[in-house]
Design goal:
single chain; 121 residues; mainly alpha; Arc Repressor Mutant, subunit A; two-stranded antiparallel sheet; 6 helices; 2 strands; 62% helix; HTH_HxlR; WH_DNA-bd_sf; DNA binding; transcription regulation; DNA-binding
């Protein structure tokens, strides 16, 4: 049996230092709905019903839950306007906008991946 090479400790340490922050990011953004909600808000401030229309298939209950979680992670801001009727608007925080480059990179990768799979498939 062939002996495997030892893992370089420096490389191993760098690897483990990368895993935790990526896991943290995935924990905040995981699920079917969070990224589509963020993408909707990348195109401007929206009322609840507008987001619901732009994110096909999401229920009001799920949208409400996901918006609360995004708000608790300082990615989305909920603003209540003192008007009649009361208007509630959602927007990305400055911190939420920091995800735009990540989302654009994921979108570009997704487009390239889809093309690649269509060619190979």
């Amino acid at each position: 049996m062939e002996k495997t090479k030892e893992t370089n400790p420096h490389t191993w340490g760098e690897c483990t230092k990368s895993i935790l922050p990526v896991r943290d990011a995935l924990e905040v953004l995981s699920g079917k709905w969070k990224l589509p909600i963020i993408i909707s808000l990348m195109f401007g401030n929206k009322r609840f019903s507008q987001i619901a229309k732009e994110v096909p298939g999401i229920t009001d209950k799920m949208l409400s839950k996901e918006l609360r979680e995004l708000e608790s992670n300082d990615l989305v801001k909920r603003t209540v306007y003192d008007s009649i009727p009361v208007v509630v608007e959602y927007s990305l925080t400055e911190y939420g906008h920091s995800l735009e480059i990540v989302i654009k990179t994921l979108r570009d990768w997704g487009v390239a991946h889809r093309k690649r799979m269509m060619v190979e498939g």
